[in-house]
UniProtKB/TrEMBL annotation:
It holds the Pfam family Sbt_1. The chain crosses the membrane at residues 6-25, 37-56, 62-82, 103-124, 130-151, 171-188, 200-217, 229-248, 260-281, 288-312. It comes from Thermus thermamylovorans. This is Sodium-dependent bicarbonate transport family permease. It comes from the Bacteria. InterPro entries: Sbt_1. Keywords: Membrane, Transmembrane, Transmembrane helix. PANTHER family: SLR1512 PROTEIN.
Amino acid sequence: MDALELLRLNLLSPMVLAFALGVLARLLRSDLAFPEALYTALSLYLLFAIGFKGGVELSKTPLAVLLLPLLATLFLGLARPLSGYLAARRLLRVDRVDAGALAAHYGSVSAVTFLAALTFAQGLGYRPEGFLPTLVALLEVPGIVLALLLAKRGGGNLGEAFQEVLTGRSVVLLLGGLAVGGLSGEAGMERVKPFFVDPFYGVLTLFLLDLGMVAASRFATLKQMGFRLLLYGTLLPLLHGAIGVYLGHLAGLSLGGATVLGAMSASASYIAAPAAVRIALPEANPSLYLTASLAVTFPFNLVLGIPMYHALARWIGG
């Protein structure tokens, strides 16, 4: 399958089309809107389902198989916020606080991008490793914590920020879902499969429709920030994605698994990181970090990034 066919496959997936529909609806000033309660319910469902399925797969995976991918993910969780911070300081020329806020978003991970990459790889016929949701949970926390440390080198309530990260709904649902899935195992999955497996991608499509509207609402801010923010939001994911694919290959992941790890590494958080930054760095500019992560990096990865990480994984893996 050539690159154009991969791009066509990705662009015509229900998730990408739903995201585009959300953008179009907002640009046309449609009255389409999701109730806040529905958005929250979709988020909770997706996060728990990710963790739960990851836990079930973890219960079947020997530690020897998981060890190298875990080390690779931990390295990504520490290296990505550092590069995100330095790039923000040099390229965007923002102060330490805004650079730390951006680094927190680009050091964490987008669960939706992970799911989109997983669906993409499965659509191509690959069978990515079942323990990959475990790596999502591992990648979520250290990047945020390290970025806040970088931003708060001059002082601040780091303990409160740390608590916010660990007790935030994203981490609780991911890690809690992992624990539930790991303890209940395959037998537990069989009992709840009609709710957590079959409807999963339909829920994800609805969630992306809403994200499309949110992203479009940030386009005005993007115009104000200029070309440098576009470069930051596209070049940094490409760098992180390439490192993720390479480390996935070194860790022994399959071609599909390396593609997904690359997409995870290239993604930027817009659930856990904003919550932590609001408490830890209230003086940071939300238009800056939300626009970069949600209006630039997320659609870039969804439309172009994931096929590019796959092409790189295929090139490295032969």
